């Protein structure tokens, strides 16, 4: 193919450089920026900065998209889309403070507690999205999915590798604690994961059950106490009281008897003196 003699050699070489550097957005914008330079609308340095900014924006968008897919967040939720006015018990400033993500660098656990439909999962996912945008690795799953994967890994002899995988993310979000019953064996597997992440990685947990009910949730009060011993040591507890966030536009259709009553969900069971006994299978060196 004959080279277009009307194109300055320097411009043609610049195009080839952009192709070689895999900068498609900058290549796409090059002719437009050259015309702006020729008309005196921008200087050469301004044009260069604009090209690089366009390319950086594209790459950041691709990074975020890929990271959100790896995080398995499902339907993307944002804090800007959350109706704080509908949940007056929720301190908006406290949630926005969490969105600064200091709890991730401090390896803390955020508990979002409240009746079904009050926006716990929305807030957890939204904080996960903020973490992804800030460059943190995130992984999202329901408790049922996590214990199922841990149980499968245990049967296949790969439990240690699965726990190691779930410890890679800077932020692990565990949704729907208390919605489905968990056997004591599954509770013990979850404890091993929590123990592995303790003071090493941040977590967000959502639950419709108060801490005092976790013995019932996990099928064993000893396992529940051991979990809470670690999950409440470096913790932020956010309790949400009120009606279903998802049904807010149809609240008049929900029978009064089915509307959740306000309750204190953050009540923890009495702490025993000293550290609780280790659940079966726990590594005593990780206490």
UniProtKB/TrEMBL annotation:
<feature type="region of interest" description="Disordered">
    <location>
        <begin position="263"/>
        <end position="287"/>
    </location>
</feature>
<dbReference type="GO" id="GO:0006260">
    <property type="term" value="P:DNA replication"/>
</dbReference>
<dbReference type="InterPro" id="IPR002611">
    <property type="entry name" value="IstB_ATP-bd"/>
</dbReference>
<dbReference type="InterPro" id="IPR027417">
    <property type="entry name" value="P-loop_NTPase"/>
</dbReference>
<feature type="domain" description="AAA+ ATPase">
    <location>
        <begin position="106"/>
        <end position="238"/>
    </location>
</feature>
<comment type="similarity">
    <text>Belongs to the IS21/IS1162 putative ATP-binding protein family.</text>
</comment>
<protein>
    <submittedName>
        <fullName>AAA family ATPase</fullName>
    </submittedName>
</protein>
<dbReference type="InterPro" id="IPR003593">
    <property type="entry name" value="AAA+_ATPase"/>
</dbReference>
<dbReference type="InterPro" id="IPR047661">
    <property type="entry name" value="IstB"/>
</dbReference>
<keyword id="KW-0547">Nucleotide-binding</keyword>
<dbReference type="Pfam" id="PF01695">
    <property type="entry name" value="IstB_IS21"/>
</dbReference>
<dbReference type="GO" id="GO:0005524">
    <property type="term" value="F:ATP binding"/>
</dbReference>
<keyword id="KW-0067">ATP-binding</keyword>
<dbReference type="InterPro" id="IPR028350">
    <property type="entry name" value="DNAC/IstB-like"/>
</dbReference>
